[in-house]
Protein backbone atom coordinates (compact mmCIF):
# COMPACT_ATOMS: atom_id res chain seq x y z
CA UNK A 1 0.00 0.00 0.00
CA UNK A 2 1.28 3.47 -0.89
CA UNK A 3 2.17 5.74 1.99
CA UNK A 4 0.92 9.34 1.89
CA UNK A 5 3.50 12.08 1.67
CA UNK A 6 2.41 13.60 4.97
CA UNK A 7 1.91 11.54 8.08
CA UNK A 8 -1.52 11.75 9.73
CA UNK A 9 0.15 13.12 12.83
CA UNK A 10 1.54 16.02 10.80
CA UNK A 11 -1.96 16.78 9.47
CA UNK A 12 -3.37 16.70 13.01
CA UNK A 13 -0.56 18.94 14.24
CA UNK A 14 -1.23 21.30 11.34
CA UNK A 15 -4.88 21.58 12.36
CA UNK A 16 -3.67 22.46 15.87
CA UNK A 17 -1.54 25.23 14.29
CA UNK A 18 1.76 23.75 15.34
CA UNK A 19 4.69 25.37 13.56
CA UNK A 20 6.54 22.05 13.33
CA UNK A 21 3.78 20.77 11.06
CA UNK A 22 3.97 23.88 8.88
CA UNK A 23 7.73 23.39 8.63
CA UNK A 24 7.22 19.78 7.51
CA UNK A 25 4.70 20.91 4.88
CA UNK A 26 7.02 23.73 3.81
CA UNK A 27 9.98 21.35 3.45
CA UNK A 28 7.90 18.88 1.45
CA UNK A 29 6.19 21.29 -0.97
CA UNK A 30 8.33 24.43 -1.20
CA UNK A 31 10.15 23.28 -4.34
CA UNK A 32 7.02 22.30 -6.25
CA UNK A 33 5.18 25.52 -5.31
CA UNK A 34 8.23 27.54 -6.36
CA UNK A 35 8.29 25.70 -9.68
CA UNK A 36 4.61 26.49 -10.20
CA UNK A 37 5.37 30.18 -9.66
CA UNK A 38 8.33 30.00 -12.06
CA UNK A 39 5.96 28.86 -14.81
CA UNK A 40 4.20 32.22 -14.58
CA UNK A 41 6.66 34.81 -13.22
CA UNK A 42 10.19 35.44 -14.52
CA UNK A 43 11.55 37.52 -11.63
CA UNK A 44 13.23 35.28 -9.00
CA UNK A 45 13.00 38.00 -6.34
CA UNK A 46 9.22 38.21 -6.75
CA UNK A 47 8.98 34.42 -6.60
CA UNK A 48 11.06 34.36 -3.41
CA UNK A 49 8.65 36.90 -1.93
CA UNK A 50 5.37 35.32 -2.88
CA UNK A 51 5.97 31.62 -2.26
CA UNK A 52 6.55 32.05 1.50
CA UNK A 53 3.44 34.25 1.61
CA UNK A 54 1.45 31.29 0.30
CA UNK A 55 2.66 29.19 3.21
CA UNK A 56 1.77 32.00 5.64
CA UNK A 57 -1.72 32.04 4.13
CA UNK A 58 -1.85 28.29 4.61
CA UNK A 59 -1.34 28.65 8.34
CA UNK A 60 -4.21 31.13 8.52
CA UNK A 61 -6.54 28.62 6.81
CA UNK A 62 -5.68 25.63 9.00
CA UNK A 63 -9.25 25.12 10.22
CA UNK A 64 -10.73 24.29 6.82
CA UNK A 65 -7.93 22.10 5.44
CA UNK A 66 -8.16 18.53 6.67
CA UNK A 67 -6.36 16.44 4.08
CA UNK A 68 -3.12 16.61 2.19
CA UNK A 69 -5.08 17.14 -1.03
CA UNK A 70 -6.81 20.16 0.54
CA UNK A 71 -3.45 21.61 1.55
CA UNK A 72 -1.94 21.10 -1.91
CA UNK A 73 -5.00 22.52 -3.63
CA UNK A 74 -4.83 25.58 -1.39
CA UNK A 75 -1.10 26.11 -1.98
CA UNK A 76 -1.34 25.83 -5.77
CA UNK A 77 -4.38 28.10 -5.94
CA UNK A 78 -2.72 30.60 -3.62
CA UNK A 79 0.47 30.78 -5.69
CA UNK A 80 -1.60 31.04 -8.87
CA UNK A 81 -3.63 33.96 -7.51
CA UNK A 82 -0.54 35.74 -6.20
CA UNK A 83 1.23 35.32 -9.56
CA UNK A 84 -1.80 36.67 -11.39
CA UNK A 85 -1.86 39.64 -9.03
CA UNK A 86 1.81 40.34 -9.82
CA UNK A 87 1.10 40.09 -13.55
CA UNK A 88 -1.74 42.58 -13.31
CA UNK A 89 0.53 45.03 -11.46
CA UNK A 90 3.65 44.36 -13.57
CA UNK A 91 2.86 42.57 -16.85
CA UNK A 92 6.51 42.68 -17.94
CA UNK A 93 7.40 40.04 -15.31
CA UNK A 94 5.31 37.35 -16.97
CA UNK A 95 6.51 34.63 -19.27
CA UNK A 96 5.53 34.98 -22.92
CA UNK A 97 2.94 32.30 -23.75
CA UNK A 98 3.78 30.01 -26.65
CA UNK A 99 1.00 31.37 -28.84
CA UNK A 100 2.48 34.89 -28.54
CA UNK A 101 5.98 33.71 -29.47
CA UNK A 102 4.72 32.74 -32.90
CA UNK A 103 3.67 36.33 -33.63
CA UNK A 104 6.77 38.16 -32.39
CA UNK A 105 8.14 38.55 -35.91
CA UNK A 106 5.14 40.65 -37.02
CA UNK A 107 5.54 44.46 -37.08
CA UNK A 108 4.19 46.38 -34.12
CA UNK A 109 1.09 48.50 -34.47
CA UNK A 110 -0.76 51.03 -32.32
CA UNK A 111 -3.14 48.37 -30.96
CA UNK A 112 -0.41 46.08 -29.66
CA UNK A 113 -0.54 47.38 -26.09
CA UNK A 114 -4.31 46.95 -26.00
CA UNK A 115 -3.94 43.42 -27.38
CA UNK A 116 -1.26 42.55 -24.81
CA UNK A 117 -3.43 43.80 -21.94
CA UNK A 118 -6.40 41.82 -23.23
CA UNK A 119 -4.27 38.66 -23.47
CA UNK A 120 -2.93 39.13 -19.92
CA UNK A 121 -6.46 39.65 -18.59
CA UNK A 122 -7.68 36.62 -20.54
CA UNK A 123 -4.84 34.45 -19.18
CA UNK A 124 -5.44 35.67 -15.63
CA UNK A 125 -9.18 34.97 -15.84
CA UNK A 126 -8.52 31.56 -17.37
CA UNK A 127 -6.13 30.70 -14.51
CA UNK A 128 -8.68 31.83 -11.92
CA UNK A 129 -11.26 29.44 -13.34
CA UNK A 130 -8.96 26.42 -12.87
Would you give an account of this structure?
- There is one protein chain.
- The mean pLDDT is 77.
- The chain starts with 7 loop residues before the first helix and ends with a helix.
- The longest helix is centred in the middle third of the chain and has 22 residues, at 68-89.
- The chain is mostly helical.
- The protein has one domain (8-129).
- It is built from 6 helices and no strands.
- The protein has helices at residues 8-15, 19-38, 44-60, 68-89, 98-101, 112-129.
Strand content: under 5%
Shape: elongated
| Cα-to-Cα separation, first versus last residue | 31 Å
Helicity level, as a percent range? 55-70%
Query: What is the averaged pLDDT score?
Result: 77
The stretches of 5 or more residues where confidence is low (pLDDT under 50) are none
The SSE string, one letter per element, is HHHHHH
Task: Using the CA coordinates, give the radius of gyration.
Answer: 18 Å
Number of folding domains?
A: 1
SS class: mainly alpha
Total beta strand runs: 0
Q: What does the main sheet amount to? A: none
Tally the helices.
6
In short:
With 130 residues, the protein is an all-alpha fold.
Amino acid sequence: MLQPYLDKEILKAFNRRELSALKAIFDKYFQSITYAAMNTITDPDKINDLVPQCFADLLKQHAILYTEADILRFLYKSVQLRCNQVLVEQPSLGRVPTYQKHFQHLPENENQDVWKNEMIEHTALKNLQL
